[in-house]
From TrEMBL, chain A:
<dbReference type="InterPro" id="IPR000515">
    <property type="entry name" value="MetI-like"/>
</dbReference>
<feature type="transmembrane region" description="Helical">
    <location>
        <begin position="266"/>
        <end position="287"/>
    </location>
</feature>
<feature type="domain" description="ABC transmembrane type-1">
    <location>
        <begin position="71"/>
        <end position="283"/>
    </location>
</feature>
<dbReference type="InterPro" id="IPR035906">
    <property type="entry name" value="MetI-like_sf"/>
</dbReference>
<dbReference type="InterPro" id="IPR050809">
    <property type="entry name" value="UgpAE/MalFG_permease"/>
</dbReference>
<feature type="transmembrane region" description="Helical">
    <location>
        <begin position="108"/>
        <end position="128"/>
    </location>
</feature>
<comment type="similarity">
    <text>Belongs to the binding-protein-dependent transport system permease family.</text>
</comment>
<keyword id="KW-0997">Cell inner membrane</keyword>
<keyword id="KW-0812">Transmembrane</keyword>
UniProtKB/TrEMBL annotation, chain B:
<keyword id="KW-1133">Transmembrane helix</keyword>
<feature type="transmembrane region" description="Helical">
    <location>
        <begin position="21"/>
        <end position="44"/>
    </location>
</feature>
<dbReference type="GO" id="GO:0005886">
    <property type="term" value="C:plasma membrane"/>
</dbReference>
<comment type="function">
    <text>Part of the ABC transporter complex UgpBAEC involved in sn-glycerol-3-phosphate (G3P) import. Probably responsible for the translocation of the substrate across the membrane.</text>
</comment>
<feature type="transmembrane region" description="Helical">
    <location>
        <begin position="117"/>
        <end position="138"/>
    </location>
</feature>
<dbReference type="GO" id="GO:0055085">
    <property type="term" value="P:transmembrane transport"/>
</dbReference>
<feature type="transmembrane region" description="Helical">
    <location>
        <begin position="150"/>
        <end position="171"/>
    </location>
</feature>
<keyword id="KW-0472">Membrane</keyword>
<comment type="similarity">
    <text>Belongs to the binding-protein-dependent transport system permease family.</text>
</comment>
Amino acid sequence: MEKRVTFKGWLLPMCLLMPQIIITAVFFFYPAGQAIYQSLFIPDPFGLSMQWVGLGNFEYLLGDSYYRASFVTTAVFSILVTVTSMGFALYLAVLADRLIKGSGIYRTLLIWPYAVAPAVAGVLWLFMFNTRVGVVSWYLGLLGYDWNHVLNEAEAMGLVVVASSWGRVSYNFLFFLAGLQAIPKSVIEAAAIDGARFWTRFRTIVFPLLSPTTFFLLVVNIVYAFFETFGVIHTITSGGPQQATTILVYKVFSDGFVSQDLGSSAAQSVILLVIVGALTIVQFKFIERRVHY
Amino acid sequence: MARIPDEGMVEKRGIGHYFTHVGLIFGVLIIFFPIWLAFVASTVTQSDIIRPPMPLWPGDQFLTNYSKALTSGINAPVALMLMNSLIMAMGIALGKILISLLSAFAIVYFKFPGRRLFFWLIFLTLMLPVEVRIVPTYEVVAGFGMLNSYSGLIFPLIASATATFLFRQFFMTVPDELAEAARVDGARPMRFFWDILLPMSRTNIAALFVILFIYGWNQYLWPLLITTDPSMNTIVMGIKQMFPSGDDFADWPVIMATSILAMLPPVVVVVSMQRLFIRGLVDSEK
């Protein structure tokens, strides 16, 4: 797409572009280039010089059982967060869509957790399930269940999944509700006249018509779970116990800043870069298709 | 047919109607519960909390806990952290909007050599969140001596093209006749930008501001890395720093008061500007 009418000159547009070009070059391209460059070296033990290792860092990572475990952890975590937050949001959106009046009130009541930072959500859920003072863990104890996410890997994973999904329900609810309201009422009425009950209509008409929204949300939520949940993990579990909740982004942080293993951390950054790139391409392809509908 | 009321709605009346409300209220309660608990904890004493179960109804320590948090906090007064967060969020939102408006204007309304190249250079950045390049970005910021500074908090987070992309999309929908008329009238490009394009973009700017403000306010990893001085902590990352490292009990009433204060500004923005917020959300994901 091009504008038919444009202004002349090159000095003015260059000046207009400069702020963004400079900031992008300094804080984006240079660091991204450095990540790729550093991923090909390992620093000597004194940090005085860098030794060229080619793809050695990558080979090491792929053979490293901790890194492979972190991959699996990330996959499990992302799938659970996506399914939990989308499932709950769809349930609420379907109910809100059934209302003649008042869906606006529920929308107001349900969307604002979006504004709560993942790190703050982490602190709230940590407080509820705290092993010493948590209300929920205390009542669970009363029921005979000994909650301890500090030691139990599955409980730690469950807690970070729920805390990450909580605020995300708002976002998904908003898009699901908009998607549901865009489905022509006549289609649903026609099915109702043919005698299809609510569940049948949902399964055979509503859900298929909702699939563009669902697919879009799938991609967006996976990206969210990969990158934006760092705050939740860092506040609740710090990646533990025994790395059970160390997702890839957390590992870049802990290897780079805590263990100072720069080569490995840079190589991990490059791998993440490839993953984001792939997800972005999937997203763009999908949006292109939706535009052509 | 008797089951379908006159308005043409399907199964929205009768007993099912109440189940719908019950189901929704159940969902709202689940969503609200963590916040309610945090609020209650911010109004009771430490001893109410460390002897579980804590009360589920607010106590009378609201003023004590909040004033303790705001004026002294644990490592730094929370009032200071709130100000740091405000400066960072405003800096990110306004900075990003400003540079994106200018660059989108240049890309859409001018033809000059290298335009395509710049276009693609800027749009490549759509793909990389700061989390992926933290170590080298940290080194750059440290090299400039920007650790523990507002510019260090703000600039690296401005380096992304989402806003530019959005303004470009919007400018493309502006009728060509407007630029044509401006040119015929002999208006210089910047005059057209200020008098016509900018007023037309008002709603888009406001919607984007809401989204970017929340984005900036809620940053965690980046402030965690570059603000080692407690007086530069932002509130969202400062909460975690309030937990004791040893086996001591955390000061829960103060921590929970801080959590409530940390979520208040973005929540107020979302609720009071709901329409703009939804628009911004939909725009920025397209």
